[in-house]
């Protein structure tokens, strides 16, 4: 492994120790800084670095201030956050870094063990190897894939929290490349956003998904449908008319279709977004807010928007059985949805214990790998039938 690293820590002994550990682990260049200001100067003069080990608690310019600096510089280094502070503060700092769109490799309490750093670097190597092995995604390649019909909807089910019965599906864009195989949306959706292709992808995924769900109804599989909308698509005032036309063509009642938005999608142009969302509701569609509890002005948005559904963020749901604070947040979200008359959906349910806990809390629907990952249409319909047959057999 050949990589460059920077160690940012106010303790000289810790800096020298971490530098030695990084060198032993294969780093070809390791620079050190005693605070955020020194680190920023090093970054401008000698950067970029592949990995930055950052202490959060430093006199003068601390680690939190340096995170802000990294975000302003759009730095792409992998961060390893270190501190002797309590777990809660470490988790908060990690969340802050991710909110700044920074790459957090891991969070390590002090004293930092060399083996722990090694494990994080090994994961980084695996991820980097996969990224370089793949053919780069370009706007030209994406446009060609869209024209060839390779961008298709996969479907992840949502089940009733009380009975486990499948109720609805979320349509998620996937790229089925003939040579590379399945390409994650994380690799092509940002490009679609930047180059004006996201509206076309949304329309195509919506068309295919609506047609598929309508066909399932004819086969006796009655599923509601959820479709994601990006921030840019929300600003298209013609969107409601386009969607009502697609639904009519598919023969699907708008009341069976939910459009999902994220809290952050509303920050840019709120007036245009509200125009679009209100007209979608007027035409009979339903609306869901995703990642609830992770954005800004959550309560005011909940009161302002014509919502039908609240989706509880998986970062809370996945920790609810082992973290009392995460559990309290999830329980509060479920109660809040009930008070507002909204459907509550828990994302990230990965085991039977979490499913049971959410059922006891009174959540409406559950979604996650415990039930199924996102599947192609034919595989999802097979899963649905098998699930219904299994439940019928246990009655």
Keywords:
395 residues, 16 helices
Describe this protein's structure.
It is a single chain. The protein has 395 residues and is of the alpha/beta class. Helix 2 packs parallel to helix 3, helix 8 runs parallel beside helix 10 and helix 10 packs parallel to helix 11. The chain is globular, with a radius of gyration of 23 Å. The strands form 2 sheets. An 8-stranded mixed barrel has the order 6-7-9-10-11-12-13-14, surrounded by 4 helices. It has a 5-stranded parallel β-sheet with strand order 2-1-3-4-5, sandwiched between helices. The longest helix has 21 residues. The chain has 16 helices and 14 strands.
DSSP strand content: 15-25%
Query: Outline, from the CA principal axes?
Result: globular
Mean pLDDT: 87
Number of DSSP-assigned strands: 14
Show unreliable segments: none
Q: What's the N-to-C terminus distance?
A: 56 Å
Tally the helices. Answer: 16
Strands of the widest sheet, in order across it, are 6-7-9-10-11-12-13-14
């Amino acid at each position: 492994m050949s990589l460059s690293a920077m160690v940012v820590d106010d303790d000289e002994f810790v800096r020298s120790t971490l530098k030695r550990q990084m060198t032993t682990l294969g780093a070809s260049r390791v620079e050190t800084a005693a605070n955020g200001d020194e680190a920023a100067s090093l970054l401008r003069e000698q950067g970029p670095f592949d990995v930055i080990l950052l202490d959060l608690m430093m006199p003068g310019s601390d680690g939190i201030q340096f995170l802000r600096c990294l975000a302003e510089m759009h730095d792409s280094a992998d961060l390893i956050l270190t501190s002797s502070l309590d777990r809660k503060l470490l988790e908060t700092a990690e969340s802050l870094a991710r909110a700044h769109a920074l790459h957090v490799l891991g969070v390590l309490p002090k004293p930092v063990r060399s083996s722990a750093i090694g494990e994080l670097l090994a994961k980084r190597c695996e991820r980097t190897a996969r990224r370089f092995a793949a053919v780069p995604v370009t706007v030209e390649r994406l446009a060609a894939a869209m024209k060839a019909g390779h961008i298709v909807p996969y479907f992840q089910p949502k089940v009733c929290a009380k009975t486990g019965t499948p109720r609805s599906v979320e349509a998620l864009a996937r790229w089925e490349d003939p040579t590379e195989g399945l390409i994650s949306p994380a690799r092509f959706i940002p490009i679609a956003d930047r180059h004006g292709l996201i509206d076309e992808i949304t329309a195509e995924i919506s068309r295919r998904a609506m047609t598929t769900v309508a066909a399932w109804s004819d086969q006796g599989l009655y599923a509601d449908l959820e479709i994601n909308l990006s921030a840019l698509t929300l600003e298209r005032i013609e969107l409601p008319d386009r969607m009502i036309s697609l639904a009519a063509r598919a023969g699907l009642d708008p009341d069976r279709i939910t459009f999902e938005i994220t809290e952050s999608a509303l920050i840019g142009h709120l007036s245009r977004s509200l125009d679009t969302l209100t007209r979608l509701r007027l035409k009979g569609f339903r609306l869901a807010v995703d990642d609830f509890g992770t954005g800004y002005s959550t309560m005011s948005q909940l009161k302002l928007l014509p919502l039908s559904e609240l989706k509880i963020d998986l970062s809370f749901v996945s920790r609810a059985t082992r973290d009392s604070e995460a559990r309290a947040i999830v329980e509060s979200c479920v109660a809040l949805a009930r008070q507002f008359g909204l459907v509550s959906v828990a994302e990230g349910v990965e085991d039977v214990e979490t499913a049971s806990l959410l059922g006891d809390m009174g959540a409406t629907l559950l979604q996650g790998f415990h039930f199924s990952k996102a599947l192609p249409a034919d595989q999802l319909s097979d899963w649905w039938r098998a699930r219904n047959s299994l439940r019928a057999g246990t009655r």
